[in-house]
Design a protein that fits this description.
heterodimer, A: 427 residues, alpha/beta, Rossmann fold, 2 domains, 3-stranded mixed beta sheet, 34% helix, elongated, B: 408 residues, formyl-coa transferase, domain 3, 6-stranded parallel beta sheet, 38% helix
Chain lengths: 427, 408
Amino acid sequence: MTTPKSVPNDSLPGPLEGLRVLEIGNLGEVAGKLLADAGADVIRVEPPGGGRSRHVGPFVDDDPGQPSLLHASRNTSKRAVTLDVTQAEGLEIWKRLVGLVDVVIDATTPTFLDDLGAGWQWAESQPDLDACVWCSITPFGRTGPRRDWAANDLVQLALGGPMMSNGYDDHSLPPIRPEGEHSIAVSNEYAVSGILAALWMRNAGHPSQLVDVSIHEAVSATTEGAFPNWEYFGRLVQRQTGRHAAPDPTAAWQFLAADGQYVCLINGGLPRGNSAWDGLLDWMDEHDAAGDLRDEQYQELLFSDPRANPEGRRHVADTIGQFVQSRPAEEVYRRSQSLHFAWGIVRRPEENLDDPHWADRGFFWEGEVPGVDGTVRYPGAPYRFTRSPVRLRRRPPLVGEHNHEVYVGELGMTSEELRRLLESGTI
Amino acid sequence: MDELPLPLDGVRVTDFSWIVAGPQATRILADLGADVVKVENESYIDSMRLGMRQDPKNPSLNRSGFHSNLSRNKRSITANLFHPKGREAVERLLAESDVVIENFSAGAFGRMGFSWERLQEINPSLIYVSVSGFGHVGRDASYTTWGPSAQAISGATAMSGLPDQPPAGWGFSYLDHSAGYYAAIGALMALHHRARTGEAQHVDMSQIECGMVVSAVPMLDYHVNGRSYERVGNRSRYPATAPHNTYQCAGEDRWIAIAVDDEAQWASLCEVLGLDELLEDSRFADMASRKTSEDALDALIRGATCEREPFDLMLELQARGVPAGVCQRTDDKQERDPQLAERGFYPTAPHEELGEHRYEGVPMQFSKARWRMDRGAPLLGEHNHAVLTELLGYSDEEFASMLAELAI
C-alpha cells in the first residue's frame, strides 16, 4: 500500500478550514454536511420550531418528542440558529448573516427568498456581498416551465429515470425507488462541486455568482447505460432483478446462498481470467460441484470469443449459480474475493458496522446523538484525506443551540435583544 | 454564452481512470473547464472504448457513445509506460498537473511505478485521488468491486425492493456515478486546501463507503433503536405518509409515482381520480388512518389509475399541486420533457467518428460562468502532438522519434 496506515491526527484542520457557509431550506442539508465535516463553519438557519428533518423519523426511542436520526445523519459538524425570515426583523437579521459568509446554500424554493427581498437578486445588488457564492438547490431549477412543480424523493427518482431501470424481471411488479433519498444525495453532491468550483473562480478574482442546481437534472444524469442505449441505438433498457437493466434479457447475477443471504456475482459469475477460473474450479471441486466444467471446451468459450456459444456460457453460469446456492454467503464473498472475483454479499446496512475493514480505515465516527447516552458510530466520509482530515467536528446541533453564540457573539446583539426576539417568535 | 469563463480554467488533471467511476469524476472536472488529459496505451485502453460500440465489426476504438458521454471535453494521449521515453513523458505531464486521478484496484498504480512517494518526488504539489472499492487502507484493501458488488456490500442493494421479494438492487452502477461525484468533490477540496496551505495530499476514496454514507439512517436506527433494516418498496416509512407509491397506468409498463403529503393534496388526488367517496371513508380520514389502511388504499388508487394516460394524469395532478411524476423512460426525458429541454440539459456536440450527438448536461447553471459541452470523447491519442509539444516542450523531432520508437 502506498499510504501509511495511521489514522490522521484529529487536531489537524480540514480541507475547507476558514470557509463560512449559511444553509437554509430542506433540500440542502447533505451539501451543508459535506462542507461542515470538511472543516467549513456551516450555520444552518431553521424556523423557530426547527427544520423539516427534525420532524421526520426515525426518532430516538421511536419517540417523536426525541431528536430525529434523519436530522442527525445530515447535520453533523454544523451550528444551528433559529430565525423566522418571514418577519421583518427576522429578514434584517438574515441579511446580516449573509454578510458574514462566503457561501449561501438556499434550498428553499426558486422564489421564496427573492419574494421577501432577501434572496440572490438582493445579494447580487449589494456591493459588499461581491464575494458570495449563492447555491440554489431546488427540485427542477430556478427556471423552466416546471420549476414550481411539487416533488419529493419518489417523484424525482420517477421523473429522472432511475426507477425505470430498477426493479424485477417480472414487469407486473413496479419500478423501484431505492430508499435513502438518493435524489437529495446526488443533487447535493453536484451542488458541492458547483460551490467549490465557483469559489475557485472567486479566488481567481471573479465576482460572486448564483449556482442554480436542479435535482431533476442531477437525477437525470445518474442512469448510466440508459442514456447511450437510447441516444445511439434507439433502444430502451428493461429492468431486471438485482442486475443491470438491458435492452435484452441477461443471465441472473443475484443468488440466494445456503444460509438465506443473497450474493451478487458480477457478470453472472463468469471469470475474466484463467487463474481465477482454475481457482474457482478447485473451490467447486472441494464440494464436488464442478460438474463437467473442467472440459476444455469451456475454457475455450470463456476466453476466446465472448459472443460465441451463448448456450455454453449459460451452462457455465448456471453451474456456478447452483454452486453458490449450496454455500454460505460469507464464504462465497470471501473465497471469491481471494480468487480475484469482484463478487459481493448483499448486506443490510447495519451489517457493515462490525466489519473490521471499516475500522481500519477510520470510516465510522464515534459521536454523540442528542438524547442518547454514550456514543454511536456515524458513517463518516467516503474519502480519506491524508493531510486535512474530514471528520465529525461537532455532534448535530439542538434547535437554536447557537443562537447566543451567533447573534450575540458574531452579530453583536445584546442579551436583552436576544430575549426580545425569542419572545416575539422571531428566533 | 461563450464569453463566460469556465470555473476550473487553468486546472490540469492527469487522468489514468477507466470504466465509469473515475471517468465520471474527471468528466465533472472537464465539463467545468479543467484540462483533463487521459493517459492510455494501445495495449491498455479505457475499456469503455469497447462498450456499446456503434458497429462492433469496426475495429476503431473511437466509436462508443457510452465512452464519449463519459469522457467528453477531455484530451487523450497514448504513452507506453514500458518505454523510458514514454514514462518520461508521463512524468513530465504529472509535473505540469494539479491532480492525478486513477481508479485501478488498490496498489496497481504503485506497481505501475506511481506510488504516492514517487508522485511526490515528481511533483510535490500534485494532488493524488485514488478511487477503489475498499480504499487503499484496511485489511480488505486487495478486494475489488464493480458497481453492483459495491452496492450489495454497502447496503444500497438491500435498501431497494419490495418487502416480500428479493432485493431489486440497482439496474445500473449507481455507485460508479456517486464514487465519481465524491471523487470530484475530493479533488476540489484538496485543491482548496493546497491553495490555502501549499500542501498536496492523497485522497483515498472507497466506492463502498459512498454507498454506506447514504445508508446512514438505518445504521443509526440500528444503533439507537436496535431496529434491523426491512425494505418498504416504494412506500414511505419516514415520514409515515400515504398514499406514497407507484401505480400502473394505461399503456405498456407505464407507471406513475404519487406522494401525498397533506390533506389538501389528498382531497385533490381523490377529485382528479374520481374517488370522492374516499373523502367520506373513515379508513382514510387522516394520514395516520390512511397509513394503517395502506393496502386497501393503494388497491383503490391502482384501480383508478390503470386506465389513465400517465402523462395527462401527471399534468392534472401537478396542476392541483399534488406531487406526481411518471416513471420516465430515457426517451421520455430526451424527447418530451419540457423542463429538461428548456434548461438545455441535452446539448449537442460533434465527434469525428460518431458525428453529432446529444450529451447529458451538467445539472446546474452558473450566473457568471458556464460549463462546456464542446466535443465528444477524444480519439485515442488524438492529442499526442499537442500535449507533448505545446505543453511538455518536446520538439517536433523528439516527438517524431518517440512515435517511431513506439514510446507514444
